Structures are given as C-alpha cells and as structure tokens.
Amino acid sequence: MCGIAGIMKLGSGRSPTRPELAAMISQLSHRGPDGTGYYCDERVGLGHARLSIIDLAGGSQPISNEDGTVWVIFNGEIFNYLELRADLKRLGHVFSTKSDTEVIAHLYEERGVDFVHELNGQFAIALWDVPKKELLLVRDRPGIAPLYYTRQGGRLLFGSEVKALTPLFESAPRADLQALEQLMTFWAPVSPACMFQDVFEVSPGHMLRV
Question: Of 99, 126, 160, 179, whose CB neighbour count within 10 A is largest?
C-alpha cells in the first residue's frame, strides 16, 4: 500500500506548489512510511508516500520515461510487470529501475491510453503526459486501490484518501446525505459518489482524462 496525491491547474487556477503537495502527502504517511517524492511543474503537481516492496533501492516515485515527458505515481502492484518489462526492452525501451511503476510509463509510451488493458494487478495510477498536457487517473477493475478527486478554486485535486484533499479545501467538507442514505442501504455509496459533497471516486475499471 502506498499513497498518491496531486493537483492539476484548470483554466485560471493557481499553479501547484511543493508545500501544497507536502501537506497532502502528510495525510497519507500511514500508507507509505518509507519515503516521499514529488514532481511539480506549472500545470501539474504529483506526490507519493512510499511503502517499499519492489526495487527497494531504486523504485522511488514519481517515475518518468527516458526523456521526462511522461510522469507516473502509482499505488498498488502490477502482477505481470516482469513480462511487460521484457517485452518493452525488446522494443527498445531503456529502464533505469527495476520497479513495476516504471513499466507503466514505458507501456504508456508504447500503447497510449490503451496501456491499461495490458495491466494485471491492483492499482490507482496518476499519469501526466507533459507534451499533451493530459492527466490520466486510472483505477483497477475491481476497485481495490482507492482514488478520489474534487475541483477546488480552478484546480483538480486527487488522492488515495479524501483526507489528502482536505488541506487545500476552500471550506470544510460537508456530508453528502444521499450518499449517507446509500451507505445505510447498500453498505457503501454508489460510485462515483462518496461521503462528502462534490468529492468523487474514480469508479472501478475507469479512466479519467483531463
């Protein structure tokens, strides 16, 4: 288990900052006690709280492709990453780590948004395509890895838990009473709703393209 969080500037919103990302990731330290990492440009900021499992020495996130045009943060595990890595190396991709996260970056280079169809695993992924200025938020098919998002002040905020978003809320979050009714009926809010107004989950097996 790791924790991911990030900010994307929308329209006239403010650019993300490293202190803002640090405030978000501080809420996820229980998910990733082994280290933190950040990427920040004028449009997007990505943060990661790491629980070291694969490539203990070299698998810190965010991770990019060879030329830094694709950046990835990721919570979960890709079960078939060794097979994917071998295929990508035969196609000429150069790896700098032994992590399953880096496989995602190179697989996206090769397959575009269809990369997700090659993944066998449990995952919540945020991928930033720098040239296209496109952010992808992706969740595994059964929805094992959580991923939430909201819009605040002309920006998109996302994270592994709702509390990772709250340091940047403009006002205190309010309960969604319809979601509370669904919780009492179905044991969980109906996706993409969650327990707070204007906060949503990326539904299982879905990709959000921004």
Answer: 126
